[in-house]
Amino acid sequence: MSSHVLVINAGSSSLKYSLVDAKSGEAAATGLVERIGEEQSHHVHHGPSGSYDDDQAVADHEAALEAAVQAFETHGPALGDVDILAVGHRVVHGGDKFAAPALVDDELIAAVTELVPLAPLHNPANLEGIEVARRLLPDLPHVAVFDTAFHQTLPPYAYTYAVPTAWQEEYGIRRYGFHGTSHSFVSGQAAALLGRSVEDVNLIVLHLGNGCSATAVQGGRSVDTSMGLTPLEGLVMGTRSGDLDPAIHGLLARVAGRSAEETDRALNSESGLKGLTGVNDFREVSRRRAAGDERAQLAFDIYCYRLKKYIGAYYAVLGRVDAIVFTAGVGQHSAEVRAAAVSGLEGLGIRLDPARNADPSDNIASTDDSPVAVLVIPTNEEWEIARQALDVVGS
Question: Keyword Repeat: yes or no (predicted)?
Answer without folding.
Answer: no
